[in-house]
Design a protein that fits this description.
The complex is a heterodimer.
Chain A lengths: L5 H4 L4 H32 L1 H10 L3 H29 L6 H25 L1
Helix pairs in contact in A: 2-3, 2-4, 4-5
Chain B lengths: L3 E9 L3 E9 L6 H12 L18 E4 L2 E4 L13 E4 L6 E3 L2 E2 L2 H9 L22 H9 L7 H5 L1 H5 L6 H11 L7 H8 L13 H5 L6 H17 L4
Parallel strand pairs in B: 1-5
Antiparallel strand pairs in B: 1-2, 3-4, 3-5, 6-7
Helix pairs in contact in B: 2-6, 3-6, 6-7, 6-9, 7-9
The chains are: A mainly alpha, B alpha+beta.
Chain lengths: ~120, ~240
């Protein structure tokens, strides 16, 4: 039988994994912010510097990373809404469905971004 | 099915080791039966705790294969053929072998204002509480807790912050917050709204997932968060 390691056995349920995704996506997005501000800062350095950076982001690997970012952002947004619903609305017995819907929203947002990139 | 169960049992206190015992497999055998067999037939120095054997007292909770469970209600046959790893409950001081010190757990019930505070004097007539009223339904959903500490052992927040009151104590507080007869609401909300109270819960829901009585402490804690927020907006807590 393929079982998770002992430290994770009591955590191996959808709501815990949703928590983990929410926490990790938040941390990764926070780490991305300095890069985001640096990129915006290129505009101050001049048009050529910003254009040069934007041209670089057109490469496939950067687009793939951007897709990852969109998925993380969507996952964090949906996860946050799920938590707000738990805390401010009457309890819903459909917790697993809420986790699945959050995950579905994140994947859909990522795919939509990827298809738009492909279409552009 | 193998004829014998390989039972790895924690021996010692905070420091210790696993000791392996071979226990004959039986029909309808529970994990508590395995532990009892070891103590009665193989090693009488093994310490563990149980009372009712039928899922009423909640004293036989242990960590079985990494999950907190009532050992009396966990059939060995449902855990597969692999070795059975039996440890004391997590998040509580280990006394010896499989017995933990429950004092910190129950101390937190007191800290969370888990005591009913009468609002009427003893001479008053019976309080008329409509069973179908929303508040009574909220209270009824949580009052069946028997204090086994399975939720407390499953909670990451307790392991990250040892002061965190934990799911059981907060669930108890919520049943009293929802009790229209209780007169200690302001003090109780102040007690549960601190750093180590209801707002520390991350809604991971391991308490709800593992509660052997299928109670939902996460929902109770969410109720406390709303009640504390309402009180704060009114300038209460």
């Amino acid at each position: 039988m393929n079982r998770p390691p002992p430290a994770f056995r009591h955590r191996n349920h959808p709501a815990w994994w949703a928590f983990a995704v929410h926490r990790i996506s938040g941390l990764v997005l926070a780490l991305f912010l300095p890069l985001h501000f640096w990129a915006l800062g290129q505009a101050i350095a001049g048009e050529a510097a910003l254009d040069g950076f934007l041209r670089w982001t057109a490469n496939p690997l950067a687009k793939l990373a951007e897709t990852g970012l969109v998925i993380l952002l969507a996952a964090h947004l949906a996860g946050g809404l799920r938590i707000l619903a738990i805390e401010f609305l009457p309890w819903s017995p459909r917790q697993k469905a809420a986790v699945a819907a959050s995950a579905g929203f994140a994947v859909a947002a990522g795919l939509l971004f990827l298809f738009n990139v492909g279409a552009a | 099915m193998k004829a014998a169960i390989e039972a790895r049992i924690w021996r010692g206190g905070a420091e210790g080791r696993f000791e392996t015992f071979s226990v004959p497999r039986r029909d309808s055998q529970t994990v508590l039966d395995v532990v009892t067999f070891v103590q009665r037939r193989l090693d009488p120095t093994l310490s563990y705790r149980y009372a009712c054997r039928v899922g009423m007292c909640g004293s036989c909770a242990m960590t079985v294969n990494g999950r907190p469970r009532w050992t009396c209600r966990t059939h060995v046959s449902r855990l597969g053929e692999g070795p059975l790893t039996i440890e004391p409950l997590a998040n509580l001081p280990r006394i010896k072998d499989l017995a933990v010190d429950m004092v910190p757990f129950f101390d937190k019930w007191a800290k969370a204002g888990g005591r009913f505070v009468p609002s009427a004097d003893a001479g008053a007539d019976f309080a008329a509480v409509e069973p179908a009223s929303p508040a009574r339904r909220e209270a009824d959903a949580g009052i069946e807790c028997i204090g086994c500490a399975v939720c407390y052992a499953a909670c990451d927040l307790v392991s990250w912050n040892p002061d965190y009151l934990g799911p059981a104590a907060l669930n108890r507080a919520w049943t009293l917050v929802s009790d229209v007869r209780d007169g200690g609401q302001a003090e109780r909300l102040a007690a549960v709204a601190g750093d180590a109270g209801c707002h520390a819960c991350h809604s991971q829901q391991s308490c709800r997932e593992h509660c052997p009585k299928s109670l939902n402490p996460t929902a109770s804690i969410a109720g406390l968060k709303r009640a504390a927020l309402r009180a704060a907006l009114k300038g209460g807590a």
